[in-house]
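Chapter review: from sequence to fold.
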Amino acid sequence: MDLLAIIALLTGGLVLLVWGADRFIDASSKIALQLGVSELVIGLTLIAFGTSAPEVSVAIASVLNQNANIAAGTVVGSNIANIGLVFGVSMFAFVGSKGLNKTPLVSFVLSVAWLFFALQDLNIDLFESIGFIMILVLFLYGLNQESAPSESSKSEFQVKEVLFALVSLIALIIGAQVTVENAEKLALLFGISETIIGLTIIALGTSLPELAASLAALFKQKGQMVVGNIIGSNVFNIVTVMPIIGFGIQTKIDPQIIANDIWYLIILSALFLMIAALQTKMSASMLKAGGVLLIAIYSFFVLNIFFGL
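The token string follows.
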């Protein structure tokens, strides 16, 4: 297969992946509203999980292809892109939000810390996989305690939304499989490691739903949804994908991730937490300056991967 065909299939797979995630978010949100689930829970769970669906789909496809590096690289790279690029761009129009909940922030910190611990031996074992799942349970339990369903928001249930959700899920699965297979071929063709492909091309492609959701939230002047989307997506990326790797593939992960890339995630996560905690006290110019800093770190991360800067 020639280069153009591989690039065309890889692009097509990413488009199908993002389209499937977008449709999945839309259908899932409508189903949740019809069942009377509160807006907060929808934003931090269904939308966050929906925007993480491409990463989960890539992880499942990677397990089937016995390739842990694409899945792990996609998680780390996507979370870096979510903060450095998506949140960085969002901060140019961000006006702050009030009433941020502690439970999602605690889950966010725990997920990054446990990821760092789990990757030390370059392998995700059963104990570490269970740890990720426990963080997911804590995240969902905390949201359930802080936001109860609203009966008044219920509307008539429509079966067509379930059908839309199933169709989008199928698109996600097919798009993920096509993306992973052609990413591997592209890596082999150029002599680039599959980890780098996961950290950059696939990670950026799977972060497009987060970017779309954040821009939509900014347009509707819902700053809390922007922060919630980044927190929820990053937590879901880690605590759902890493157990899939742990249960499905018993192979070593590329040491580049723990030696270099994980530190970018830790630095960006720390900056994100600082901004999330102080954003109500920050001026518009300070927020924009923060956005420039996040984008600069993400840009340096990409340059470092390809050119060793």
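Two observations follow directly from the output. DSSP finds eleven helices and no strands in the chain. Residues 3-34 form the longest helix (32 residues).
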